[in-house]
Design goal:
The protein is an alpha/beta fold. About 50% of the residues lie in helices and about 15% in strands. It is built from ten helices and nine strands. Strands 1, 2, 3, 4, 5, 8 and 9 form a seven-stranded mixed beta sheet that branches. A two-stranded antiparallel ribbon has the order 6-7. The longest helix has 22 residues.
Length: about 230
């Protein structure tokens, strides 16, 4: 697929077989820096691979893991669309990032895996995101026992948006639909969706009304109306 088929913005290829490391965290941070500084249309990831138990064991100390989780959270909250194409076995750092992306396209051979560490699955934030996105009952077997999720199951459960034999090309087509979106506006709506999982109606009403007021003001400004 020609590179210019992708939206304008940084691209990062992530090998899920790699352990969590300062180098990988810096690469993700550089992606976020470039996306924010260059006024990009989107930030794009290609993820594949799953770690062995040995790779997880090499993750270093908790400070290294903490910095990685914060970097993934920063990617998840970027003020522009985030895209991910996933193929093959996808676990570890690759799964972390796939579950944090706005638009997700999977190859037919995709298998989502939580890495094992010692005698149980690695207790990282991928498990948290799976429960948030699937609910406890549908995530239970994967989070507790490491049961893989196939591409078909991921599509049925809305963990991915589309299954394609050419995920990169399909991702580029999806990105074209996003070009009409304003990055800050997308970020606001993403946050409203996140908060809806735990906020009461009364607590959520204020932020939603503020977003409505912002949208109305933007429309008036575009129409040249000052009041």
């Amino acid at each position: 697929m020609p590179v210019n088929a992708l939206p304008e913005g940084p691209v990062l290829h992530v090998d899920g077989r790699r352990e969590i490391s300062a180098e990988l965290t810096e690469a993700l941070g550089a992606l976020c820096d470039e996306a924010e500084d260059a006024g990009a249309d989107a930030a794009t990831l290609f993820v594949s691979g799953a770690p062995s138990g040995e790779a997880v064991a090499k993750a270093g100390d908790i400070a290294t893991v903490t910095k990685w989780e914060r970097a993934v959270r920063r990617f998840e909250r970027l003020r522009l669309p985030t895209l991910a194409a996933a193929s093959g076995e996808c676990g570890g750092v690759a799964l972390d990032l796939l579950l944090a992306a706005d638009v997700r396209v999977a190859a037919p051979d995709l298998r989502l895996l939580l890495a094992f560490h010692g005698q149980a699955v690695w207790p990282g934030m991928a498990g948290y995101r799976l429960v948030q996105q699937l609910g406890p009952a549908r995530a239970r077997r994967t989070v507790l026992f490491g049961v893989p999720i196939t591409a078909r199951e991921a599509l049925e459960r809305c963990l991915v948006d589309q299954v394609s034999r050419d995920p990169g090309r399909t991702l580029a087509a999806a990105a074209r639909l996003l070009r009409r979106l304003s990055g800050p506006e997308l970020a606001i709506r993403r946050q409203l969706a996140f908060d809806a999982q735990w906020m009461s109606f009364e607590d959520a009403l204020g932020p939603h009304l503020a977003a409505c007021d912002r949208a109305l003001r933007r429309t008036r400004a575009a129409d040249g109306v000052t009041a």
